[in-house]
């Protein structure tokens, strides 16, 4: 237990102390069974002495539990996480990055998830472009998975069994001249999307092109897809920039959901 007064502690605390607290909590959140002091020290590149004092303080507040030489998250941390999730859950917790994408590309941006039956994409958040010529979509609207950029992203990173079930039980009708309508074509597209980490598609609405990237959760599993869409003429002038912006947005949203960059693979 620390013996100095709270006022003295505040004066003595280095400016990086609050950041280190969050780094400790974030690191332990990725290890359900906890970590030893040595493992935490190595992961955070912090001296054991200062880290030990930090852990003792967190333990006294119930944010950390220390047992048998291992440290894991305590009830207070879990309660805080539940409160944050309740007050600002998905998609609200990734809205800042969607707004950033909207400002950067000046096109309609959206977040989508698969419907319960995995037949359609459902928009759960949309910010439309201000231009009079724009891609228009509403929260709650459904779109076919196979013909939209967000839908193709969801299918490409879905579990293999889900992919196969969709391909075997779905009918594919052309929506535009660019819509992929064969199972072989879709499987090829899935492999390319996995390799590139995004998809550009003009298969949903004639004259419009969309770009989409996956969003993963803390376990590395597909959670949603984020993307932008607009007139193909404007897209053609900004292909590389739009692709980079959407990829970056997907990565930022994934980190916000606890994803650490490791993709567990399909299955």
UniProtKB/TrEMBL annotation:
**What InterPro entries does this protein's entry cite?**
GAF-like_dom_sf, HTH_MetabolicPath_Reg, Tscrpt_reg_IclR_C, Tscrpt_reg_IclR_N, WH-like_DNA-bd_sf, WH_DNA-bd_sf
Keywords for this entry?
Answer: DNA-binding, Transcription, Transcription regulation
Q: Name one GO molecular function term.
A: DNA binding
Q: Domain named IclR-ED: which ranges?
A: 76-259
According to the UniProt entry, the coiled-coil residues are: none
Q: Which SMART domains match?
A: HTH_ICLR (SM00346)
Keyword Transcription on this protein?
yes
**Taking every annotated instance into account, which residue ranges of this chain make up the domain HTH iclR-type?**
15-75
**Pfam families for the chain:** HTH_IclR (PF09339), IclR_C (PF01614)
Q: Which SUPFAM superfamilies match?
A: GAF domain-like, Winged helix' DNA-binding domain
Q: Can the keyword Metal-binding be found in this entry's annotation? A: no
Q: Cross-referenced Gene3D superfamilies, in alphabetical order?
A: 3.30.450.40, Winged helix-like DNA-binding domain superfamily/Winged helix DNA-binding domain
Give the protein's recorded name: DNA-binding IclR family transcriptional regulator
| Species this protein is from | Ottowia thiooxydans
């Amino acid at each position: 237990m620390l013996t100095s007064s709270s006022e003295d502690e505040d004066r003595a605390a280095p400016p990086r102390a609050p950041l280190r607290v969050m780094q400790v909590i974030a690191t332990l959140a990725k290890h359900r069974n906890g970590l030893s002091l040595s493992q935490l020290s190595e992961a955070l590149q912090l001296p054991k002495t200062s880290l030990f004092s930090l852990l003792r303080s967190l333990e006294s507040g119930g944010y950390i539990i220390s047992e048998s030489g291992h440290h894991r998250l305590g009830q207070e941390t879990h309660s805080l996480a539940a409160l944050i999730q309740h007050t600002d859950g998905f998609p609200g917790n990734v809205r800042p990055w969607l707004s950033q994408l909207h400002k950067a590309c000046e096109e309609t941006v959206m977040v989508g998830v698969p419907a319960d039956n995995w037949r359609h994409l459902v928009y759960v958040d949309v910010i439309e472009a201000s231009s009079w010529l724009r891609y228009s979509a509403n929260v709650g609207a459904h779109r076919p998975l196979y013909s939209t950029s967000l839908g193709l992203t969801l299918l490409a990173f879905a579990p293999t069994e889900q992919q196969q079930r969709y391909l075997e039980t779905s009918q594919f009708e052309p929506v535009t001249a660019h819509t992929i309508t064969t199972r072989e074509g879709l499987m090829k597209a899935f492999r390319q999307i996995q390799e590139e980490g995004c998809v550009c598609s003009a298969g949903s609405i004639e004259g419009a092109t969309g770009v989409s990237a996956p969003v993963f959760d803390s376990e590395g599993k597909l959670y949603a897809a984020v993307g932008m869409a607009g007139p193909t003429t404007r897209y053609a002038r900004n292909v590389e920039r739009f692709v980079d912006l959407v990829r970056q947005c997907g990565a930022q949203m994934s980190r916000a959901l606890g994803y650490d960059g490791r993709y567990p693979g399909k299955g």
